[in-house]
Structure formats: C-alpha cells, structure tokens
Amino acid sequence: MRVRKVLMGAGVAAMVIGGFSVAAEAAAWKPWGLYGSKRACVDAGQQYVRENFDAYKCTEQPGGYMLWLK
To answer: How many CA atoms lie within 13 A of 70 on its CB side?
Structure first.
C-alpha cells in the first residue's frame, strides 16, 4: 500500500513537472508599421497593447523603426 502511494506521488510529480516544460503556443510577431523615431514607435506600440495586442517591440530599420505586434 505504501509503495503504491509513493509510485502514484512520483507519477503525479512527473506529470506536473513535465507540464511546465512544454512550450506554450506563441503567436508570431507581425510587422505593423514604420515610424520615423523610436519614441513614435513606442507610443504606437503602447497604444496597441492598451487596445488589444499582447506585446510590442520596435526594431531599427533603414528609414526608421519597425513596430512589431504580437
């Protein structure tokens, strides 16, 4: 009886730990627009996050900063 409890506990622990290591489905970053300054890009990204997107990032590109949304 005691061995069965130990084995069951170990099995449950393995399932829980294994569940944490599974990567979540991540949405892909999508380019949204090119802005002339980093400040303008960050302002736009923050506004989109307030409205309905999960995250934003701004990367430097030739001609300005690209806004990426996820």
So the answer is: 10
